[in-house]
DNA sequence: CTATTTATGTATCGATCATTACAAAAATAA
DNA sequence: TTATTTTTGTAATGATCGATACATAAATAG
């Protein structure tokens, strides 16, 4: 392989860029911010990502999808997948104050991107729908097993969970307080039992 | 009163500016956008609003608070205030596609403003908390009257509603479809009865 | 009328935006 | 070694950002 060796690897740039996007959102994150965070100058940056800022953002979003896929794998081998989902939602209450303010980057993106960039909005919506579908499938499964008594359709309950997820994304900014969130989460999760 | 007569009245500028902010959010709405929408040039704009873009945004936000106050007044003379609240939430399902995408400007602002402008974020959070308190009070009242059977505390139920409100703000962008939203809303409202 | 006051329209400010141009650096291939 | 390839660092691009400067328009006060 010829050529000057790579210092700033793709994966690392994306990881660092994700942090910036998570804090500031897409529009407010400047190339200057990204270059400062990643260490890479404009040369390396555009050499690596011909698509510029938008491409890096999409890759940062996809990175989250991978994290979500990993969770889905965990679910598939779990004996009580619904409890795993509930525990994951419960874990939000214990997040740091800073993480409460940041919220979920995918849910944030759906809100930010309306009328701004429909590609990026569609990407984020798609991921949320995948998460919703995961919820729905697990609920359906548990209903068949008889672990859940509720007769409400799994589709409605799946949408109930993704709606709660997105609502919690704002509630935690209103009340970045573990106890408040904990009570709220328990009450809402109790609906599915 | 001396001086050249005013063509572009404050109230009208705010109203037109609100539409722009609602569509694009704060950051993405440029002064150029605002001037185009309001008709007022930079001269009139900064003569009227010394605080510039930020001041106009704050006034546009306060405008929404007034609309909310009006609703609160309706509630106070209603015989079944909870039903009024429920109907208001139900009315979201029937909104136009465009309105689904725009969502609630206050909820949007909370998400957008994190780490961007803490004044504007605090304004929006404050309004959401006022709406939440309105929910809580009405629920408490109806519980005392015995109209509601649920024993869950009004504080939790109030937060449940504001969380749902914010969650719906994203769900309606995922599914700008009246029937989907209608079913979802009925299921979630049934929790409070 | 003239003086004063206020609003408007336009030109322009410096800063920053995302992106590009390009030469030097640093590796391998021949 | 020399030629080639790729990455890096820096300078500069034109566009647009929010905001200001300022002359003029258009009213009233005296």
Concise summary:
Two copies of one chain form a homodimer. The first copy, chain A, has 193 residues and is mostly helical.
Description:
With about 190 residues, chain A is mostly helical. Chain A is built from 10 helices and no strands. The longest helix of chain A is centred in the last third of the chain and has 28 residues. The mean pLDDT of chain A is about 95. Chains A and B meet through helix 1, helix 7, helix 8, helix 9 and helix 10 of A and helix 1, helix 7, helix 8, helix 9 and helix 10 of B.
First-to-last CA distance of chain A:
58 Å
The level of helicity of chain A is over 70%
Multimeric status of the protein? homodimer
Mean pLDDT of chain A: 97
> What Rg of chain A, in angstroms, do the CA atoms define?
19 Å
What is the succession of H and E elements of chain A? HHHHHHHHHH
CA-based shape of chain A: elongated
Helix/strand class of chain A: mainly alpha
Main pleated sheet of chain A: none
- Per DSSP E runs of 2 or more residues, the count of β-strands of chain A stands at 0
Q: Specify the number of helices of chain A.
A: 10
Task: Report strand % of chain A.
Answer: under 5%
Name the biggest interface: A-B, 44 and 44 residues
Low-pLDDT windows of residues of chain A:
none
Pfam families (chains A, B): TetR_C_13, TetR_N
Domain Tetracyclin repressor-like C-terminal (chains A, B): 90-182
Organism (chains A, B): Flavobacterium ginsengiterrae
Protein name (chains A, B): TetR/AcrR family transcriptional regulator
